[in-house]
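dumping this here so i dont lose it
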């Protein structure tokens, strides 16, 4: 006899996402907000642990490197947005 296999649904899909309305803006916005809050909390914990484990000079170097990374990533986002604009305009014209 063959037993029917039950399809397992992930906790996220059966829990949080099932409570959000389908097809609207609320679901993706709530997911983005949740990810932002969790990311900010993990960033805070990272900096607390680095401040405890590194000396002042090393932590200053880490902060300078992370600042340079942020400056570079912001400029790359601007380039990405401009490229997206031109690509979507090209696609719309064709």
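and the seq i came up w/
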């Amino acid at each position: 006899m063959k037993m029917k296999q039950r399809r397992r649904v992930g906790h996220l899909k059966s829990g949080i996402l099932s409570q959000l309305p389908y097809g609207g803006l609320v679901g993706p916005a709530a997911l983005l907000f949740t990810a932002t809050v969790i990311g900010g909390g993990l960033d805070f914990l990272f900096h607390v642990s680095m401040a405890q484990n590194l000396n002042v000079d090393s932590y200053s170097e880490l902060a300078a490197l992370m600042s340079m990374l942020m400056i570079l990533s912001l400029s790359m986002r601007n380039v990405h947005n401009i490229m997206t604009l031109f690509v979507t305009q090209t696609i719309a014209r064709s």
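The chain has two domains: 17-53, 56-94.
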